[in-house]
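Ticket #4471: structure output looks truncated?

Reporter: J.K.
Steps to reproduce: submitted the chain below (171 residues) through the standard prediction queue, then opened the result file.
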Amino acid sequence: MPETSVGTSKREYIRPATAHSAALTAADREADMTMAAQKHTVEASIEAARRLGPIVASRAAEVESGRRTPRDLLDELAAADCFRVLTPASHGGLGADLLSGMRMFEILARADASVGWTVMIGGTSWIDLVGLPRATFDKLFSSGPNVVFAGVFSPSGTITALVQGYRVTGR
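Returned output as attached by the reporter:
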């Protein structure tokens, strides 16, 4: 599969060219290259999400039937900095305010709710790790800024109301 290079002043992304990328118009590709030539900003990332919206929407059935976001689409979203919008600038993110982050998640969710959810979870799960020692937290980002965290919160157990309070069992 051929690769397209998208460079910035500080780093360079390599992302696979896909058949779905062909859905981008020449103007979209030129805008992508212009954006990539500049330092990525929150506004540029939100605009990239808008341009990806039709591609995301066109693949909604694929996402649904596969029960996951395809890797090449994840690569496109990562190249657009979608996973880094709310990551602190100190750790290679864009350090956006919450409203801007929500705006981007909403744009993606309008195209496909599952993709919007995936980007929101992958791009904000670092928040659950801020209680780690600083050196440990920093090490998580040591290989570069495109770090996506995922996990599951699945408590097990029961709670039973009693006359004098509650009985909680499980983990």
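Triage note (M.O.): checked the attachment and the full token line is present. Strands lie at 3-7, 12-16, 157-162, 165-170.
Status: closed, working as intended.
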